[in-house]
Amino acid sequence: MFPIRDHNPSGRTAIVTYLLIAINVGVFLSYGMSLPEPQLTYFFYDWGMVPRYISEGIGLHGLITHMFLHGGWMHLLGNMLFLFIFGDNMEDEMGHFGFAVFYLLCGFAAAGLQYAAAPWSEVPMVGASGAIAGVMGGYLLLFPRAKVDVLLIIVIFFRIFPIPAWIVLGVWFGLQLFNGAITPTDGGGVAYWAHAGGFVAGLVLTVKTWLRLGGPAYWARNQGHPPHPETDYKIGRSSIPKVPRR
Questions:
Q1: Which end of the chain lies in a sparser environment, N or C, as judged by fewer CB atoms within 10 Å?
Q2: Can you list the residues of the chain whose pLDDT is less than 50?
């Protein structure tokens, strides 16, 4: 079960969101299609975030560059789908420059918690997941009851269900905490603590925007829904309301 779209249209073109997607895809194509496995490993050590390097005061550029690297097509496509679903609305509320700064800060926070969990690990961390987790955390604060369509696949059957964002994102965050608690931090695999750190950072960094919109009054005014009509998806078509530009 995973999200495929939300019902929350944005009021402006999400330039930064689309640019981030283009950069991530372009960077992946620059090495993912040409480097064989041994060279790819060395590439990730050079440009990923390696906790041991950070502890030794080297490789600090990896705190930034890791956000634009991915280990494979599925890693890339999954991350870009989540950014596409949730990024436009956050950019809509924060503005283009504010969202760009927010995204990078979430990525830093994600790397920071992953580093703190295993500061002498020699496993390079790559991926935009931590920064995008921050986008998801902010989305949860601003639009807790926005409808998110999730695709449920059981063997050969599938169905799309609209579920409130607080359930989708809350369950996702809970899984990161659970898996992080039971997974060795100095091994390879998914960087669960990076996901958790990015998510919490995104939620905290969005508080200023939430308060600007009215804080608890903003929630009460819209009952946690977006402050505009939601997209009504139908089979074969979708009714997408126009959102006034701010």
A1: C
A2: 235-238, 240, 245
Which DSSP string corresponds to 57-112? Answer: T--TTHHHHGGG--SSHHHHHHHHHHHHHHHHHHHHHH-HHHHHHHHHHHHHHHHH
CB 100 within 8 A of CB 16: yes
| Both tokens assigned to 150 | 């999730």
pLDDT confidence of residue 236: 44
Report how far residue 122's alpha carbon sits from residue 138's, in angstroms, rounded to the nearest whole number: 31
Provide the pLDDT for residue 1. 67
Paired tokens of 102 = 């927010």
Q: Give the pLDDT score at 214.
A: 95
DSSP class of residue 231 equals P
d(CA 140, CA 54): 31
DSSP string, 119-166: TT--PPB--SHHHHHHHHHHHHHH-TT-EEEEEEEETTEEEEEEEEHH
User: Which whole-number Å values give the CA distances from 36 to 65, 67, 156, 195, in the listed order?
Assistant: 20, 21, 34, 28
CA distance 198 to 193: 8
- Maximum distance among all Cα pairs of the chain, rounded to whole angstroms: 56
Q: Rounded to two decimals, what is the model's pTM?
A: 0.91
